[in-house]
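Tutorial, part two.
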Amino acid sequence: MIVYNVKRRWFAMKGDAEQYRIREKLPPDATIKIGIADRTQLAAFLDALCEPPASPAEGGTQVAAVPEGIDNAFVDPDLDIPKFLRDSWARLMAGKGD
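Running the prediction step on this input gives:
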């Protein structure tokens, strides 16, 4: 599966992402292509959206490769996140999501 990210917006089609990027007057490298090949990559991707990337100074390690630039797409929990995602994340953090 491939999706595109531009300035914290998500697109299924590259053309739509590029149109948005151009409207926002962003450089070509503002479009991030994210390919998800398996469940491990999907889990790493979702983790990256839910937690800001840890710096090497903080001892941050990644279980699986996270697409480059994903830190630009981090979802701040103070933003309006759909209820089903908030609830799923809360259960996971409480250890009930296994």
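The chain has a mean pLDDT of 75. In part three we will examine how such features are distributed along the chain.
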